[in-house]
Amino acid sequence: MKFLILGIIFAFTAISGFYTVITPNLVRSVFGLFFTLFGVGACYAFLGADFLAVVQVILYVGGIAVLILFAVMLSKNPYRPGIFGSKKRSIFSGLISLFIFLILLFAISQIPSPPVASRSIPLTGEIGGNFLTNYILQFEIVSVLLLCVLIGGAYIIRKEIKGD
Amino acid sequence: MIEFKVMLSLSALLFSLGIFSLLSKKNAVSILIGVELILNACALNFAVFSKFNLMKAGILDITGYIFSIFIIVLAAAEAVVALGIFIAIYKFLKNIDVEKADLMRW
Asked: Which value does ipTM take for this structure?
């Protein structure tokens, strides 16, 4: 049963990832990304990381994928040039990424497998406590960064007013 | 523990798909999608190594989960700024072909 679920998650994520990368239509590519992100969220749920799965679905699937979709659909025909470069470049980059994938697979096969998985506990309280004690500096830096991103994003996309 | 290696292989697959997207596309939004795939693979890797503790077997180490959350937050911030820059380029040049955006290159 466990292996069946694992195989389904793997196949779903891998197929939608391939579709994201290979399709020549930008909107279809964004929808493929949508399903890939759902698959990664399912991986988190499979690993027992409940809070992480919820964050993935809310922030990535509900936030970033919809944001990219908005940016694509609000701009007038942004995919006019087509999304692939020259054919030679596609072949070369396919070879390079295949090479990287094989290297990573070799490295993974060299890792000693751990004997047991750690038990799953409800993570939300644990993560919240760690954010406010052990990782308080990183938490504050990220919050300041988010403020900077808000201001910077509004500054970049603003409308220019002539003669001001 | 087959799921350890399967999850790591899935992460490696997503990473190399992202590299392919990054190298072969010329539309800026597609390149952003590749970057998102790479960041997702990285966060999944952190979560896997947090679940399967290689140092002390069977004991949950929460650091990987926390760094996955940081990666997700940073990816959101990065997507907002990148899309803002793309819209600004689109207003200025009327397309988002990365091969045509070469005004700062001499």
From this structure: 0.88
